Amino acid sequence: MRHVLSIAIILLALCGIVVGIAGFRGRMSRRPPIEVFSDMDRQPKLRPQKPDAFFPNGVSSQLPVPGTVARSQPIQTLDGPVYPFEDSPVNTGLVTGTTNFAPADPLPVTMSLLRRGQARFDIYCAPCHGRLGDGNGITKKIGDMTAVADLHDARIVDMADGEIFNTITRGKGLMGAYGPLIPVRDRWAIIAYLRTLQLSWLGSTNDLTARERAALK
Amino acid sequence: MSLFPKWTNWLPLCIVGCLAFGGAAVTAAVTYYFTPKYTRVGYEPVQPVPFSHKIHAGELGMDCRYCHTGVEKSWFSNIPAASTCMNCHNQVLKDDPRLAIVRESARTGKAIPWVQVHITPDYVYFNHAVHVRRGISCVECHGRIDEMDEVQHAKPLSMSFCLNCHRHPAAFIRPVSKVTDLGWQWSTNADEAAHLQRVEGAKLVAHMRVQSLQNCSACHR
Fold first, then answer.
1. Does the CB of B18 have a partner CB in chain A at under 8 Å?
2. Architecture, CATH, for domain A111-205
3. Residues B96-110: pLDDT tens digits?
4. Cβ of B34 under 8 Å from any chain A Cβ?
5. Global pTM value
6. What is the Cα–Cα distance from A203 to A73, expressed in whole angstroms?
7. Residue B85 domain-assigned?
8. ipTM score of the complex?
9. Which residues, other chains included, contact B88 with Cβ-Cβ below 8 Å and sequence gap of 6+?
10. B62 to chain A nearest CA, in Å?
């Protein structure tokens, strides 16, 4: 009986050691997961954004050759479909063949475009300009960013849509370029929504129909 | 006098006992440890820059898509370029030593060596866009990223984990506009939330014609 007891104790101690070393599920670990049978887990193929010795700059994701035209659908504008490589106000924010900013949004402004613009504005612009566009985004409170523009400023209200497009695409002053993050169509959607925001501040009760005015009271 | 002393009478029992106990212990250890629930969950590598999702996504309330711009468009959810960080950090913490690598990367274009946390085996086809655009939130597969200072592997991402949802997506689906709002619930009351998940979840599945994909070629192609 004594032996049985001691063997049992030894076995229990072994279990204790295993649990002591291996720990429990979900324990924080700095070491990468063990792949027990890593048969075909890692194949010699390119994955995006990985280090890669083959290319001179050492990463797997390479930029396309300059001048590459993406295979794409044209954007439907008020003047018909436009491809991304065409010199057209949709792509450049400029009146075709000039350096003047396009005065107005070249996309047909619909409710769904405004909804899209609202969602994109809240993602990309609201952290700094605030959801109202008044320049009181969260970075003013926490990050102490003071130079953020108030988008209801008379200068920006009067600004041509093309110039705002240019600001979003290339950045301006302290504001970074958002061209690489936001596709062209979404930039115009944001501008359309921004105009709606501005109108909501400039509007007066006289713009409402009699019925709406009654509902307001 | 016999050849074997008396205690050896116990030996067969002892061997059987040890084998039974040892077998049980090994089985238990294998089921408990030899699974992604143990090997992956909790992985939290040291990143080159002490970037915190808790500050950026939690406190600042930034949307995931501000940085992970590809998540709705492609299979791959990209890690943002240093220029995205510099949109703010050209003013915020402008000269902070913790951001030295980011500033250098933005200047020279040299990639920041982030360590990838979640990664599927190469024989598995995964796609972010298809999930995110059908109302499957980041939180189902990544946990509460917006409460983590350092990204930790929160879910096993094993085949059974994937299938568990693919068998009944209605139990996990939510409105597409709430996908990046990780703390979102149908209701603050747990019973009501479970009820709404059943009712509204079934409606969403029917409305978006979400399929229950269980054939092998969905993920192994």
1. yes
2. Orthogonal Bundle (1.10)
3. 999 999 999 999 988
4. yes
5. 0.93
6. 37
7. no
8. 0.87
9. A127, A128, A139, A143, A145
10. 6
